[in-house]
Design goal:
Blueprint lengths: L2 H17 L6 E5 L4 E5 L44 H8 L9 E4 L3 E6 L9 E6 L4 E5 L2 E2 L5 H6 L8 H10 L1 E2 L12 E7 L21 E7 L5 E2 L6 H21 L14 H32 L5 H13 L6 H14 L10 H13 L1 H9 L8 H8 L7 E2 L1 H10 L10 E9 L5 E3 L4 E3 L7 H7 L9 E9 L6 E7 L1
Antiparallel strand pairs: 1-2, 3-4, 4-5, 5-6, 6-7, 8-11, 9-10, 12-17, 13-16, 14-15, 16-17
């Protein structure tokens, strides 16, 4: 195919693609065989244009920001009373004050509601010439943050006197608290009673013939005095709850016996009694044990006369021939131990090492020798602490290797020659629970879990043999177990 025909085919293909986007902007081209349409020169596509899948209408622009100014709270311009004179004039005509005593003074207006049982007025409202008011309840001032003050801004310009009186009458008086002990957080509120000396009623019997008949309350310093709901105000309720918790804690403490060295002047008598009872029980138990020990000594004891004791002492002190240094050390230590008490004894390191050797070879023989009282030897429990200084476990132990390094740093030449030994022995197949680590000991163990899983076919199989490696010095070094394996 010629290059012209290829170009023509390419031209036709391009023409077909463009015609899709041109609605009316092409012209007809006539030839001998066919009629073709040709786009007009300079025409631009207007229809069927490609669109992106994510094109969408743009959201409306946000309005421009402006500075926000906090407008102060606008108070209502309406005032219930225009002046102090207007207040005094209107109060005189109120029917809600029939039970109240109204006293008009030069700079204040006093409203009192009295009770026949007490001398102080139950409620007292004092309004000054600036129309601010103050409320008393049995002579006790309402706190500054009380609801009656905060909601009305403590002025009768925002509330009428009749509404104020009705609000007070709907509130109840806080009964206060019952103090368990005196403290600076509570105040005594005393209200004198009005008593007729010529007439004594049954209600006055509560005073027990007191020369000052009164009604009393104990209040916290933040007591609200007047409350709308509930039995106590928040401050008194918190104090009562705290006092109840402290009282329970004190009762619980009193129920426990005191320490032996507690000062008697600062300890409650109940705790002293409990301590005395506890000590009597302990003394009785100790006396019973002492009697049992005396009976056991009388049955099982062996008496040694004074002459035998002196002979043993002379043998230990005068035998100087063929005495090795360790034998001399052993006899000297035995003399010291025989003269000391059995508690708080410190044994020489060479004695501990010798006893460890004896107990390892024959524990039963060592225990028999120790119980015979011929020699003063450490118990098996004491030797166990020295024996388990490095806790034995399967595999090579890094602690043993570090101990070997520290011990052999000062060795030289022949002293560093050692022999590596290993010994396999048959053991009883069984499982043992280690209460210290909480593990079951007795399975096949090569010292490393990764080696166990990579080498052994059954990891949970119980071991029947033990392989132990020893290091022994040729000249002076003692034998030390370096590793153990259960197989």
């Amino acid at each position: 195919m010629s290059a012209v025909s290829r170009l023509f085919e390419l031209y036709n293909l391009t023409l077909i693609m463009v015609l899709k986007y041109l609605p009316f902007t092409f012209i007809s081209v006539h030839s001998e065989k066919m009629v073709k349409k040709k786009p007009k020169f300079g025409a631009l596509p207007t229809l069927n244009l490609p669109k992106r899948s994510h094109d969408a209408t743009k959201p409306a622009a946000r309005p421009s920001r402006s500075v926000v100014n906090d407008d102060p709270l606008t108070q209502s311009s309406k005032k219930y009373y225009q002046s102090f004179y207007d207040l005094c004039k209107r109060v005189k005509t109120l029917k809600t004050l029939n039970d109240w005593i109204v006293q008009e003074l030069e700079d204040r207006l006093v409203l009192k509601k009295k009770s026949s049982q007490v001398t102080l007025p139950e409620f007292e409202i004092m309004i000054d010439d600036s129309l601010g008011f103050t409320i008393y309840v049995y002579g006790w001032l309402l706190p500054e943050d009380h609801e009656l003050y905060t909601t009305n801004l403590r002025s009768v310009t925002n509330i009428t006197v009749s509404e104020l009186v009705k609000s007070i009458s709907t509130l109840s008086i806080c009964p206060g608290v019952k103090p368990s002990e005196l403290s600076s957080s509570i105040v005594h509120h005393v209200i004198p009673k009005s008593v007729d000396p010529f007439f004594v009623s049954d209600d006055d019997d509560d005073d027990d013939g007191s020369s000052f008949p009164h009604q009393e309350y104990w209040r916290t310093r933040g007591c609200e005095v007047l409350l709308g709901h509930g039995e106590q105000c928040c401050s008194c309720h918190q104090y009562s709850h705290k006092s109840e918790l402290s009282k329970k804690a004190q009762q619980k403490k009193i129920a426990e016996p005191a320490h032996l060295f507690s000062p008697i002047s600062q300890t409650a008598p109940e705790r002293i009694k409990l301590t005395l009872q506890m000590q009597r029980l302990k003394c009785a138990e100790l006396e019973q044990k002492l009697e049992e020990m005396k009976l056991e000594i009388q049955k099982s004891s062996v008496e040694v006369d004074h002459q035998l004791s002196q002979d043993i002492t002379s043998i230990l002190g005068k035998s100087d021939k063929n005495v090795t240094p360790f034998m001399n050390l052993f006899w000297q230590q035995q003399k010291k131990l025989l003269t000391r008490s059995s508690t708080g004894v410190r044994y020489h390191p060479m004695i501990i090492r010798y006893c460890l050797s004896l107990a390892t070879k024959s524990p039963a023989c060592y225990e028999e020798l120790r119980k015979s009282k011929i020699l003063v030897l450490p118990s098996q429990r004491t030797l166990k602490d020295y024996r388990n200084c490095i806790r034995p476990k399967a595999g090579f132990q890094e602690e043993v290797i570090e101990e070997l390094k520290d011990s052999t740093n000062s060795y030289f030449d022949v002293q560093r020659y050692i022999v590596l030994l290993f010994d396999e022995m048959k053991i009883m197949s069984n499982l043992v629970f280690d209460k210290v680590t909480g593990e079951l000991i007795g399975y096949l163990d090569l010292g490393d879990p990764d080696i166990n899983f990579g080498t052994l076919e059954k990891v949970d199989e119980i071991a029947s043999h033990a392989l132990v490696f020893f290091i022994r010095g040729i000249c002076i070094f003692p034998s030390i177990k370096d590793g153990a394996y259960f197989c």
